[in-house]
Amino acid sequence: MIEGFLLGLSTGTSCLAFCAPVLLPYFVAEAHSHKRNLGALGIFLLGRLTGYLIFAVLAWAVGWLLLQPSADREIIFGAARLVLALLLIGYGFGLFHPACAVAADTSRGNRFQRRWGVPLPLWLGLLTGLSLCPPFLLALTETAQSPSLGHSLLFFLAFFAGTSLFLLPLPLAGVFRRIAVLRPVARLTAGVIGCYYLYLGLLMITEGGMHS
Amino acid sequence: MSVKSPAAARHGARPPVWKSLLKALPFIFLTAFMLLGGGASRDPRQLVPLILTFALISVLFFRMVHTGRTDRYRAVFFILMAFCFVLTFITNLIEVRGSMALTEEDMATGQTPFCHMVIPMTIIPAAFTRTIIFPGSILDGFANIATMFALWIGVTLALGRGFCSWGCFFGGLEDGFSRLRRKPLLRKIGHHWTYLPYAVLGAMVLLSAWTLTPSYCEWLCPFKAVTEFEAVTSTRVLIQTIMFGSLFAGLVVVLPILTRRRTQCGLLCPMGAFQSFSNKINAFDIRIDREKCTDCGQCIRVCPTFSLDANSVAEGKTRLSCTKCGKCVDACPQGAISFHVKGTPVGHKPERARMLFLYPAFLFLVVFGTGMIQGALYRIVLLVTTGSLIQ
Ligand code: SF4
Ligand code: SF4
């Protein structure tokens, strides 16, 4: 569980750097008081948590049904880690710019709100929760190796807690400027963590290769 | 527009020798007391290094005071300290252990000397587990954890990130390599890379808390290449060895030669990033007098740690990462940059501010470096007299 939390903490800076700028206009445009903004953030986080938990179940099911029985699972997981680590490195060191899923036009969210009564923050939260950004994909490979569904859910819960810490200050004023300063640091931190996962992936493949 | 030499621009003519001597004497006496306080050895192999080291310190400090230049003389001692440290450390290891490689047994018995690089990574685990995640001893041995922490706290309070140019016994290696060429071959390094040390710091602090091991030491620290490292007995250690070996070759040797910058300090070191925050609480900083500055950009070009850019110069300040080496102060053709005591007007009595900084800074440099330089000179005397560096 601590692993999930720390992975969330170390990669969550990218949520702040890349998803937050898309959310901020909402907070600034829609809500008036800190109290109301905090309420909206609460709903947003609920949507995000729902997205995470859906993925926790999916990741565990894929890992358990398809990968765990395989004799080469160390190599498969190692290779998955390696590829995702490379993605994280590419993203961290500025080789490409994956957008947060929430960057999708919020007008669709507005339509949902009008037609089905789904509050916009919940929709935005769900989208960030389902966003296939590299840190999130890394969390996915980790849970695909989970021994149980409970472990997988706990991992994602902790990952959610770690990444959410960065989003908590959003409704407060004056965050815009600090985000601009944090942005390069946040990206690069994700890149360094990617290097560590690259190393873990390499290790897993070489050790898996020796065992099989 | 006439361009004066930097020192002349700052001070006009040099002060009379007797005045400089008077200013330098208290420091020279202090050093003599430090070196001879315990009584000098009668063994000429110990005595010669002691006399040479004392002479070097006295001459360098006097020249700093007399010429108004800081970096030129600081660098001589700083670079010498780093290379002497490596020589002394490796020869000691070979004498005691027969090899630079650490065995699992050495680590289990806590025989690794504590190094300041690991300090930021120990704080969170220490808060949670009440242990220091490093295979060293708290109180025993020459570089025990308690002594290194005490020294680090002292130097941080007195100098802030000045530690990186006046205390760190690794920084001199790249400082030395960065001065090998007269002109850089590589000038452009993306500005965003200067944020990398903060990212490495964040990632390493989290990884260390997660794994309860000093992650930076294990798989990144380039200076293991010239001190000690884990014996290669597994794939894991092999991968780590390739990583720190390449980082040493790239960031401590090759890039400093090509760029004339301290690339490891400016682009990787998490300890440096951590230390940068202490510049906020330290009494000294480097300031630019905007009335004198002509925006020629010379200071930006010479700063070894990427601590000046057009924005910071326009604001009359350095970036947070300034190591107070004084290179920009020496280089500014207008004498617009000076050491500064926070809270006083910029450019007001700059020489007094410089002297106030130099006393503690050079004292720390001497405290850190004297033993290393003496030790290395002793090894050289041994080599000359016995034909071997090892006793
Ligand atoms: S402060 Fe820098 S830019 Fe300004 S005159 Fe001096 S060297 Fe040139
Ligand atoms: S800003 Fe000046 S004093 Fe600070 S590190 Fe750069 S050259 Fe040295």
Description of the structure:
The complex is a heterodimer of chains A (212) and B (391). By secondary structure, chain A is mainly α. Chain A has one domain. Chain A has 9 helices and no strands. Chain A is globular and about 60 Å long. Chain B folds into 3 domains: 123 residues, no CATH class; 183 residues, no CATH class; 66 residues, 2-Layer Sandwich (Alpha-Beta Plaits), CATH 3.30.70.20. In chain B, the strands form 2 sheets. In chain B, strands 1-2 form a two-stranded parallel ribbon. In chain B, helix 3 packs antiparallel against helix 4, helix 3 runs antiparallel to helix 18 and helix 4 runs parallel beside helix 18. The N and C termini of chain B lie far apart (61 Å). Chain B is 59% helix and 4% strand. Chain B is mainly alpha-helical and 391 residues long. The interface between A and B is medium-sized, with 23 and 19 residues. One iron/sulfur cluster binds next to helix 15 of chain B.
Give the end-to-end Cα distance of chain A, rounded to a whole number of Å: 29 Å
Strand content of chain A: under 5%
Helix content of chain A: over 70%
What is the overall number of helices of chain B? 18
* Spatial ordering of strands, largest sheet of chain B: 1-2
Radius of gyration of chain A from CA coordinates: 18 Å
- Structural class of chain A, by secondary structure, is mainly alpha
Provide the structure class of chain B. Answer: mainly alpha
Q: Tell me the total number of β-strands of chain A.
A: 0
Can you tell me the overall shape of chain B? globular
Query: How much strand of chain B?
Result: under 5%
Number of helices of chain A: 9
Low-confidence spans of chain A? none
